Amino acid sequence: MRKSRPNHLAGFGSLVWLLVVGLPLYVMLVATFQSRPDYAANGPLAFPEHFTLDNYVNDLNSGFAQYFLNTVIVTVCVVGIVVLLVPPLAYTIVRSRGRATTTVFRLFLLGLAIPSQAVIVPMFFVISEAGLYDNLIGVILPTAAFAMPVCALILTGVMRDITPDLYEAMTVDGASPRRVFFQLVLPLSRSGVSTIVVFSALQAWNGFLFPLVLTQSVETKVITLGLYDFQTERGVDTPGLLAAVVLSMLPILIVYLFARRALVQGLMGVGGK
Amino acid sequence: MTRNAPPPADSGAVRSAGSSGSGSSGAGRPGFLWAVPAAVFFGLFAIVPLIMVAVLSFASWDGLSDPEFTGLDNWRTLLDDPVMIKSLWLSVLLTVLGVAVQTPLSILLGVWAAGHQRNRAVLSAIYFVPLLLSIAAVSVLWRAVLDPNLGVPAHATWLFGDGNLFGTQATAIGVLVFVSTWQFTPLHTLIYQGAARAVPPVLYQAAQIDGAGRVRQFFHITLPQLRNSIITSVILMVVGGLTTFDTVLILTQGGPGSDTTISAYYMYQKAFKSFDYGAASAIALLLVLVSTVISLIVVRLSGYDKMRSTMEGL
Amino acid sequence: MKQRARFSRTAVVGGAALALVLSLSGCGGGSDAADGDTIHVLVYGDAANKVEKELVATFNKTSKVKAVLDTIPGADYQAKLQTIINSKQAPDVFFNWGGGSIKPFVDAGLLLPLDPFIDKDPDLKAKFLPSVFNSAVVDGTSYGVPMRGTQPVLLFNNGKVLKKAGVEPPKTWDDLLAAVKALKVDGVTPIALGGGDRWPTLMWFEYLYDRIAGPELFQKALDGDKDAWASQDSRKALGKIRELVDAGAFGTNYDSVKFTDQGSPTLLATGRAGFELMGSWAYSTQQDAHPEFAKSDLGYSAFPSVEGGRGDQANVVGNTNNFYSVLKKTKHPQAVAAFLKLMYSDQFVKAQLSIGNLPTTTNTEGLLDTAASPEFAKFQYDMVKAAPAFQLSWDQAYPQAAATAMYQSLQQFFNGSMDEDAFIKAMQALPTS
């Protein structure tokens, strides 16, 4: 009996969770289509009486397009740096027998325990001295650096799964490390690479503290900061704010819709196999 | 300049490693040079600042005049500072609560979502949505939703009472834990979903033949099989929990009083509200130490260090 | 599958190349900071920037050295300012609140004394109300020229709600307590408070200390006399706050409400609260968010008097004014001086008045009719002009290092999680210089 239909509980639980996930999303969406007085008068749960797109239009006119572009630039650059630097690193960690490599691996493991907040003060002065303050490059570099430890861990995990015989087979043919890397290691750790792409992209997309401290002007503002400013500016309106939240998730939503499988697989890969 | 260095060096490293590496340590093994670009980059933007933090923690500095070496003064002040001690406890508490709430929840959801039924796929797609939002966006959203007068609490007084969620310590911590759970459960659910799907079906078939019920199957097959994923997921939660910042800044600003001032936020306050960079650096170093210790404990308890060999053996 | 492998490698290489190109081109902007013929003017980013932009444009029409306006959004302004002020990114001229907000910069020798400018053009001082001008004088030297406007704190009310409860704007403390009682009977929160922001809570302390002890007590405390906080008057003020909070004047969830996200203003505008103690900017906030309410029902009055108090009931607290200060290392002091002269021009005063700010120049009075809300502008102007003392917000008067701990103690005393003695001890522990 219990074996065949034991899932009422799970079904119920899943619906409760649906409610928890869905309710705020509902409140958010509904609010964005109302005017400010309507929202204040009708409360967060009511369906919009007078449907309006003004909130979105206003947000877009107040610089959100620029914030988008900045966030996309930061994300692409961070992913680029991580994808360029981490695979060779992971490859070395897995294959090299040198003591220096072990030290480097330890360094990155230590890096896992360094919260980005911890270095924010000197980071400000390093970036400022380098003339990169209030410049997207100044955000990109530390963000990429702090995405590296987890990415290195993920990728070494994946690369370790490549069986030694495969390496043997190639090296017997006299393949250089470079050939081994491009023809064996990279193709076989494809899933791992897509995982670190997703992970570092999320890091960059979510980035808050580095942009908060390392930039100041509208030209270099990223979306997360745009939202924060929106909230702390006096005279903010909730529907407008929530419309900005919706706008901030649109690009990722589009990626999600078109590349859902890659995204999900990438994230699943964070946990290893 | 610093920006340009790593990428070109990378291609250089690839080339030179190709020629020198093959000669030294066994054919086809990459030389250390392969790791240099990443190591240099990471060293420059993480290790060097960390060393600077360590140095600054022994100095008094407001950013205006030159730093002054003050020995252990910052440390002495901090260890006497009740807010500091409290912030450490709060950081740990927030982390532990986060792990305690999210782990069972995401294991259950993940295992449930691993099934191939259509309705599960649809629901999973919706569950995923919070992950599409940045932490800042999620915090802003919940701040609006939880407003005592204009948000949901005003319409659900049976649940929220007077809605003073940000006014007492217990509820403010509750909100912080809940909001991170709301946002990050999808990620951990995915991790478990992937892992649960990778469990060989043979195991379940065998168990069914033995007459084991679903609950027993869960505890005797699924959970043990999820072991590695649990470790990874918990480590991510611990690191995430200890470095919680955006949520506190946007939702509670460390309040009421200093009741949600976790270490990471306290450090930010010391640095960028009080301009006491020396004290901030000492807190930062303490934070690094605590998270190192916790990571080590998790690694030891879970045998993560041994996991490498099991994986290699596969 | 095989094909996919190749695709992903191309994608990876391509993506990386793209990243590099982007980082070289796209992110390389913003290099005009180093050029020689500009002065950078850094201001608090908000709606008032419109006027500052116009002003900069006016200046640039005639000046060879061009002014560039940089803004930092409000909440981060002070933090950003201090981090960049001694770095390469420092501006030439910057917005501040006078008093404690510039003291550390003066101490570090970063600011340019403005007295030589004033010697050349006495109007730079004479054209401003002295009480205002003086709050940017540090140790006898002038370091700031007033800009934007004065922002006194007023007791705003919802006229409709008061009428319904049969309540008048309170003249005395007892009136206020009676009004609280009457409003509670009517089922509204008597006083809206954005306790989540903390600085709105501070305003209650500032006014009660001023009314009961006069401005001298706070000045003593600020000068380093720790006993001031433990004095009889201090305890009396704290007792009044306790009395008001315990009477349920603010409801119970004020610490979850903010002014900055429209929480408390909406309570007032929608008739769910009777009063709100807030800076004069609340008027334009309401005009913006609830125009109907602002037009018909938004009332305001001065803070009530407290019987037996030493403070003059005409005293005002708030933000005395905003100021422009100048960095010593500016390369174009002459251009800066010319820029500062615009702060008392008719054009500037009119523009400020039109967006609801109240400049404190001597020519303001004659231009009040051009204000966005002439009646409100006149009320404020008379109030500030007649005030024997204008107490600068405590969080601006104390050094920045004290602000966090001050906010925490205020909030904790207010909501009852800290008692009188603990509060006094916490205030005594604040750094004063």
Strands side by side in the biggest sheet of chain B: 1-2
Q: Radius of gyration of chain C over alpha carbons?
A: 24 Å
Uncertain spans of chain B: 1-25, 306-314
Low-confidence stretches of chain C: 1-34
What is the name of the CATH class of the largest domain in chain B?
Answer: Mainly Alpha
**Biggest sheet descriptor of chain C:** 6 strands, mixed
- Subunit arrangement of the protein: heterotrimer
Specify the biggest β-sheet of chain B. Answer: 2 strands, antiparallel
CATH superfamily of the largest domain in chain C: Periplasmic binding protein-like II
Largest interface, and how many residues on either side?
Answer: A-B, 112 and 115 residues
Query: Beta-strand percentage of chain C?
Result: 5-15%
Reported by name, the CATH topology of the largest domain in chain C is D-Maltodextrin-Binding Protein, domain 2
The sequence of SSEs of chain B as H and E is: HHEEHHHHHHHHHHHHH
What is the gist of this entry?
The complex is a heterotrimer of chains A (273), B (314) and C (433). Chain A has 273 residues and is mainly alpha-helical.
Would you kindly provide a written description of the structure presented here, covering whatever features stand out?
In chain A, helix 3 packs across helix 9 (about 190-205) and helix 11 (about 225-230) packs antiparallel against helix 12 (about 240-260). Chain A starts with 7 loop residues before the first helix and ends in a 5-residue tail after the last helix. Chain A has helices at about 10-30, 35-40, 55-95, 100-110, 120-130, 135-160, 165-170, 175-190, 190-205, 210-215, 225-230, 240-260, 260-270. Chain A is about 75% helix and about 0% strand. Chain B contains 15 helices and two strands. Chain B has helices at about 5-25, 35-55, 75-80, 80-115, 120-125, 135-145, 155-160, 170-195, 200-210, 215-225, 225-240, 245-250, 265-270, 275-300, 305-314, and strands at about 60, 70. The relative contact order of chain B is 0.12. With about 325 residues, chain B is an all-alpha fold. The radius of gyration of chain B is 24 Å and the shape is globular. Chain B folds into two domains: about 1-50, no CATH class; about 75-315, MetI-like (MetI-like fold, Orthogonal Bundle). Chain B has a two-stranded antiparallel ribbon. Mean pLDDT of chain B is about 80; it is low at about 1-25 and about 305-314. The radius of gyration of chain C is 24 Å and the shape is globular. Residues about 1-35 of chain C have low confidence and may be disordered. Chains in contact: A-B, A-C, B-C. At the A-B interface, helix 1, helix 3, helix 4, helix 5 and helix 6 of A face helix 1, helix 2, helix 4, helix 5 and helix 6 of B.
